[in-house]
Amino acid sequence: MRAVIYARISSAKEKKDDDARGLVTAGVDRQEADCRALARERGHEVVDVFVDNNVSAYSGKRRPAFEEMLEAVRAGGVDVVLVYATDRLFRLVSDLERLVTELGEVQISTVRSGEVALATADGKMFARVQGTISQHSSEKLSERVKRAIEAR
Question: Which helix (H) or strand (E) covers residue 3, if one does?
Answer without folding.
Answer: strand 2-9
